Each structure stands twice: as C-alpha cells, then as structure tokens.
Amino acid sequence: MPHDFLATGPEDAKITIVLAHGAGGAMDMTWMENMSSALADKGLRVVRFEFDYMAARRSTGKRSPPPRAELLKQEYEAVIDELGSQGTFVIAGKSMGGRVASMIADQLRDMDKISGLLCFGYPFRPIGKPQSLRTAHLEEMKTPTLICQGTRDLFGSQEEVSGFKLSNMIEILWLEDGDHGFQPRKAISGLTIAEHVITVANHVSTWTAALRKPPPP
Prior knowledge:
Layout: E1 5-8, E2 15-20, H1 30-40, E3 45-49, H2 52-60, H3 69-83, E4 88-94, H4 96-110, E5 116-120, E6 145-150, H5 158-161, E7 170-175, H6 186-189, H7 193-209
Parallel strand pairs: 2-3, 2-4, 4-5, 5-6, 6-7
Antiparallel strand pairs: 1-3
Helix pairs in contact: 1-7, 3-4
C-alpha cells in the first residue's frame, strides 16, 4: 500500500536522503526529527517513511515486531519506486532501517536508482551475540557507503568493528563516546549529542556532494 512521507529540507535540493526508522522507533521520534533537521540545514532533502508494521501501530496501538528482512527489503524498494527518481538519491536508515537499506543498496545502484548508502548506528550484531555478525554483505559492498557510529555502540563498538573485514567502499565516521543513538556521557567526554548530530550533518553534506549522480532515464 502507498506510504506516508515526512519531507524536511528544500524541495529543489540536489540530493535526497530517504530515511528509514529503527526497529522500535517511528519516523517522527525525536532522534529522527533532530537528525532530519540538521541535514536539512545543510541543504539536503530528507524524506522519511514508515514500514507497514510501524504505520499500523498508529491505527491499532498494537506493538508488533518487525517482519523478516526479506519483506522489509521489498517494502523499501517499493518506497523508492513511489518516490521516483529526481536528482541524486541516497538510501539511509537508523539501526534496522540502515541494515535493510544496506541489503538492497548494490541492486538499486546497479539499476541507477541511487548513488549512495547512509547508515546511522549500524547493527553489526545483536547485543550480547558477538558471533552473530551481520557483515557478510558488507564485505562485498560496491555502493559508496557512510556509516555513522558511536564508539561505544553495543551493536558494534569501534574496538570490535576495527577487526571486521569490510569493503573499501565503506567509510565509518566514529562519534567519540557515542552510544547506539550517538549519546555521549558528557561527564566523561565533555561532548553532547547535539554536537554529534552537527558533526554527522557536516560530514554527510561533504560526503554526499562527492557522489555520482545516476544518468537520466
């Protein structure tokens, strides 16, 4: 079924970031609002959507878990088709949303539908399961990819991830003392999440400006 979208940023932006939510957070949660606003301030257009299971919560109030990844992949692909191809598209997601985007990125880029992949807090593994890595497809990634990750993210810390084999198309922006939502411990690091969000927005702006625009259809 058609999706509802939340668009932030200039309509004539050269780059549009399609942003999916995490497993338990809606598209208008505070984190998504703040990140979208910061990216829009850099001249980027951010289009948010909700997977059907999350959208259903608004009407039913029932908190059902996400369906299997295969269904979410198909849904994300449908969202890209709904939006059409205007300008340069980057698919993105917070946590689970980023993982789903990463699983369809190479296919969509081969079809000239997107130019890049952006992940906020990639879930490299489930918490407490260091052997259950979600990195096999990242080893062969051909799409230009930026992962923004807190150094103490429980789904993949800097110490852990530094030992993983990842494609050289993947760049990681490490956020000092940040957790899965980029929140640092101010008493320890002296930093704030607002500062990290600005750091991310600045880096994403520079990174997206270098992406190749797909040819016109």
